[in-house]
Amino acid sequence: MHSPLRRAAQWVAMQPLLLALTCILVGCSDSSTSPKQAVVATPVDPATAGKIHVDVSYTGPVPTPKVFDMRIAPQCATQHQEPVTDNSLMVQDGHLANAVVWIKGGLEHWVFAPPSEPVVMDQKGCVYHPHVAAAMVGQAVDFVNSDPEAHNVHARPQVVTAFNFLMSRQGSKRTLTFDKSEIAIPVGCDIHPWMSAYLAIVPNPYVAVTPASGAVTLTNVPPGDYVVGVWQEKLGAKEQQVTLEPRGVVNVQIEYAGGG
Prior knowledge:
The chain has helices at about 5-25, 75; strands at about 50-60, 90, 95, 100-105, 120-125, 125-130, 130-135, 140-145, 150-155, 165, 175, 180-190, 195-200, 205-210, 215-220, 225-230, 235-245, 250-255. Strand 12 and strand 13 (about 195-200) form a beta hairpin. The chain is mainly beta. It is globular. The protein starts with a helix and ends with a strand. The chain contains 2 helices and 18 strands. The longest helix is centred in the first third of the chain and has 23 residues, at about 5-25. The chain has a 5-stranded mixed β-sheet with strand order 7-13-12-9-10, with no helix packed on it. A 4-stranded antiparallel β-sheet has the order 14-4-16-17, with no helix packed on it. A 4-stranded mixed β-sheet has the order 6-5-8-11, with no helix packed on it.
């Protein structure tokens, strides 16, 4: 018969094996990482909140977009009835699409909980959808592969940690969150070199990407003095200071001119 002391020693020796089995069966988390704390947001009073309406325009000649040669990916090419072109500068009747608009300054002392809905960047027809996406720090970003082709998501950020992962199967998904801001992260696919996109990460929920109309409205904004930022991948960044009165509406006009 084993002594109680020897049985205790055997029990201690078995702990790593038992822990490994538990990890295999139910999964383990890193106990050295503190559990994620719920964000207590600074409340925005809807009775005094206002809106910032931003129109982004472009003047001057618009270069003819490049047509991509997709013959190396026939399964993707067959998903397009029209030629696939470079959409890094999309202008319609002077309105600029795919520009990121956000409140760049004035909210440093506010705390916001990230939106619960994820931002989705899909790879479909060997094209990123959308071409430009925006998310808040801490908000989930879902990278999805809707193609029968394999893709990799290769990001080249300057601030956040770089990432590069393979999505080999149709329907696969990978979710990331970011703890820092960056305007904007270039994202590509090394397998299909024409595939490109940008992901903007901002510290507050007041962000939007302009559609074909070039116009967005940031809503439920508390009154205050702000810097509104605008960024476009070919034309760079602009900003404008605004003052939003209680229940007010501010109209901002941002104009880019032919290449700069």
